[in-house]
Design brief:
Bound molecules: zinc ion
Shape: globular
Strand order of the largest sheet: 1-2-6-3-7-18
Structural class: alpha+beta
Radius of gyration: 24 Å
CATH architecture of the largest domain: 3-Layer(aba) Sandwich
Helix content: 25-40%
Number of strands: 21
Length: 452
């Protein structure tokens, strides 16, 4: 028996998303309160009580809740209201017009992540309207500031009002998009994300005239050694449980991947060689897998020198280091300091700019199983796999407090002119109305099944 898509919500969810996109919440400055108030109005129309919690002027978070009997643990439907900047000159439509055309809702945030906000609003409304008997509370929270680290959003709420949003289970962004394989769609669930460590290195030297380079001590040349050292560092390969699970699923799904992925699972230390071979048949996939097996250290900013004929006494560079779940920030800092000391302990300064812990939730839970069974009700021939994201989401704050958190915004691959396209954070970001209805249908059934 196939489950039914909620065709009847098409117009309402399209309007919701269009209107959310029209409220410009580019962060900075964010101005999420306008969007939060709009959502509150939509909820109040259906008899919900909402709370607007501002972490700073105009930085609104909106929370509401459907009470359950308490027989089951509660579930939070989480999303963020802010978006990254969009340059109208690069777009073929106004990025904040929320225009609907060619079967898509267009605009900044359509995918990341006002589309899921709209889906979660619909799920709450449907649970109430259809009088679903909930055995646990279902909480809705749309928050500020995710794109800049979440300090004024989820972090603020968890520090000041944990009782309002903390839940043992959380559904958020980061996964859900299906990977098209040869014979079927494999839906993803984000169960893990890497952590980040941004650090600055300052190289010192002695200034001088560059016509006599031997008399000076060039800070740029010292920084060159630092960059070289970081680039040549061979981090240990580590298979997290999410990546193991992913490799095992994909080995089953794609005949061409069976041999390399089985070998990789058995011999992670041979990963470089195996991925080199894989690159010959699937270059993009090989590139995607590499950073999921080890820590990465990448220089992103460099400053040094101010005049053509002056050797600078200072040069500084900023590095973005990403660590895997199971790796530790303090140990990583110690490792980087050691690498720097090997070059020069006197003339190199090290400073941590920002650190965010990696996080992982097990896929062995009733919620994961419910997601899998609901997906199969809608698409009997589909696969499902957990994935590790190389970037970060607000899920890390909840995982740190013990919640099981999944990134799950169910979406089929968007195909435009016969090609699968990736649209979040990009130019002409958009989501198909078909995917909005699909996402809402899957999420509604998942919550209903899990909570009753
Ligand atoms: Zn996002």
């Amino acid at each position: 028996m196939h489950a039914q898509l909620l065709k009847e919500i098409e117009e309402e969810i399209t309007d919701l998303l269009s209107n959310l996109i029209r409220i410009n919440t580019t962060n900075p400055p964010g101005n999420e309160s306008t969007a939060a108030k709009y959502i509150s109005k939509q909820f109040k129309r259906d008899g919900f009580k909402c709370e607007l919690l501002e972490s700073a002027p105009k930085r609104g978070n909106i929370v509401t809740r459907l009470k359950g009997t308490g027989e089951k643990p509660s579930l939070l439907l989480l999303s963020h209201l802010d978006v990254v900047a969009a340059d109208p000159k690069e777009w073929s439509v106004d990025p904040f017009s929320g225009v609907v055309k060619d079967g898509f809702v267009w605009g900044r945030g359509a995918v990341d992540m006002k589309g899921m906000t709209a889906i979660e609003i619909m799920v709450m409304k449907l649970l109430k309207k259809n009088n679903v008997k909930l055995k646990g509370d279902v909480i809705f929270a749309a928050t500020a500031d995710e794109e800049r680290g979440g300090l004024l959003g989820v972090d603020y709420l968890l520090r000041n009002y944990p009782e309002k949003i903390l839940a043992p289970y959380v559904l958020n962004e980061g996964g859900g998009l299906a990977i098209p394989t040869r014979s079927r769609n494999v839906f993803t669930v984000q169960t893990a994300e890497k952590g980040l460590l941004w650090f600055r290195v300052k190289a010192k030297g002695t200034a001088g005239h560059s016509s006599l380079p031997n008399l000076a001590d060039n800070a740029i040349l010292r920084m060159n050694k630092v960059i070289d050292k970081m680039a040549n560092y061979q981090p240990q390969v580590m298979l997290t449980s999410t990546v193991k699970h992913f490799l095992a699923v994909m080995a089953r799904e794609e005949p061409a991947l069976q041999e390399p992925f089985t070998r990789l699972l058995a011999n992670p230390e041979l990963s470089d060689k195996i991925l080199d071979e894989l690159a010959k048949i699937a270059p993009h996939l090989a590139e995607e897998i590499l950073p999921r097996l080890k820590m990465t250290i990448t220089p992103t900013i460099i400053h040094g020198g101010f005049k053509e004929n002056v050797i600078p006494s200072e040069c500084e560079a900023i590095f973005d280091c990403r660590i895997l779940p199971g790796q530790d920030t303090a140990k990583t800092i110690a490792l980087i300091k050691k690498l720097l000391n090997d070059i020069d302990s006197e003339k190199l300064e090290f400073e941590v700019l920002q650190a965010q812990e990696p996080s992982e939730s097990t896929a062995e839970t009733p919620l994961y199983n419910t997601i899998a069974s609901v997906l199969r009700e809608f698409e009997s021939n589909c696969g499902i796999t957990p994935i590790l994201m190389t970037g970060g989401t607000d899920s890390r704050f909840f995982r740190k407090r013990g919640s099981i958190c999944y990134g799950f915004h169910p979406m089929k691959p968007e195909v435009i002119s016969g090609k699968v396209v990736k649209l979040e954070h990009g130019i002409d970001e958009r989501i198909s109305i078909e995917n909005l209805v699909f996402g809402a249908s899957i999420l509604y059934e998942t919550v209903k099944k899990f909570m009753s």
